[in-house]
Design a protein that fits this description.
- By secondary structure, this protein is mainly beta.
- The protein has one domain (2-115, 135-313): Porin (Beta Barrel).
- Helices cover 9% and strands 53% of the residues.
- It has three helices and 18 strands.
- The longest helix is centred in the first third of the chain and has 20 residues, at 2-21.
- The chain is globular.
Length: 314
């Protein structure tokens, strides 16, 4: 246990050092330089409650949203649905299914991000024209992963994304790649994921890039018995359109039924502490059910968001 804590501390310190070493030669932020920002909204209540430190913990159907290699650990059919009341009365919904096919695991996923319709205004009619305007983002994904050895798992994902604003829209094809490596020391895993890689996009003659994310991190069980288990994880997230940040998460599970979770994100002015819980319902026949909840506070201005996830395995 002490060795694990020391190793995780060294990894976390190294990530913090790497974070401090990035110097782009200018003082202004990179925020706003990429589109499709809905792709950076974390999917899943368990993952959100653990501070989104999940690149090394991914091993179920929801891995398609974090580290696609994680679905390589799926041994039965799994599906999940997540809902979030997002900021400014918007909604974020996601669905995924994982199917083992011989030595591979195939994953299908979908995301819908919607804002409330609003009335159009113009210079001549600043109080509204009477026309309602809608906007939203959508994603469809196809993933495949495989455990090549008992230590190494690799996954790939192809994603079609579309953004709609009133009568304008654009679409793109993006790619994810991820890997998880089991070190053989206790349950320590090292992992990385490259997400949302694709060509630049153009909307209304304005060109912008994709919100490329590079995640690298580690996870381990501090202790694990028949009655309880404690997991910790940490990861560095390097985006192309913002400053780097570090995610830290932990999960305490009691008798494999109730899980209590907490997380922390550095270098984030709004979202820092995260909390939540999960309940694993005993199997009914071959069907397993899980329910997860996360409470994420964004301070006094934006308030809190609530995320819910229901999972099934059969």
């Amino acid at each position: 246990m002490k060795k694990t804590i020391v190793i995780m501390f060294v990894i976390l310190a190294s990530l913090q050092l790497v974070q401090a070493q990035f110097d782009y030669g200018f003082d202004f932020t990179k925020a706003g330089s990429a589109g499709l920002q809905f792709l950076k909204i974390g999917v899943g209540a368990r993952e959100a409650a653990m501070g989104e430190a999940f690149v090394g913990l991914s091993k179920d159907v929801n891995s398609v949203f974090w580290n696609v290699a994680g679905i390589g650990f799926v041994t039965n059919r799994q599906l999940t649905f997540s809902h979030s009341n997002w900021l400014v009365e918007s909604t974020h919904d996601a669905f995924a299914v994982a199917l083992p096919v011989k030595s591979f695991v195939v994953g299908l996923s979908a995301i819908s991000f919607k804002i409330q319709d609003f009335e159009e205004t113009t210079v001549l009619e600043p109080h509204g024209t009477g026309n309602m305007v809608g906007a939203g983002d959508y994603l469809l994904g196809l993933a495949v992963a495989r455990r090549y050895t008992d230590k190494l798992t690799i996954g790939l994902q192809l994603k079609y994304v579309q953004e709609v604003l009133a009568n304008r829209s654009f679409s793109n094809i993006l790619f994810d790649i991820g890997t998880i490596y089991h070190t053989g020391f206790r349950d320590l895993k090292l992992a990385f994921a490259l997400q949302h890689f694709g060509p630049d996009m153009t909307l209304a003659d304005q060109q912008f890039r994709t919100p490329l994310l590079f995640r690298v991190g580690a996870s381990d069980n501090i202790f694990a018995t028949d009655l309880q288990r404690l997991i910790i994880s940490a990861e560095l997230v390097h985006p192309t359109d913002a400053n780097e940040w570090i995610n830290i998460g932990m999960e305490y599970t009691l008798i494999n039924i109730l899980a209590l979770r907490a997380g922390y994100q550095t270098n984030d002015q709004e979202q820092r502490l995260t909390t939540g819980f999960g309940v694993l319902v005993p199997n009914i026949g071959k069907v397993g059910t899980s329910f997860d909840y996360a409470y994420i506070s964004f301070g006094e201005i934006f308030g809190a968001t609530h995320r819910f996830t229901i999972g099934l395995s059969f």
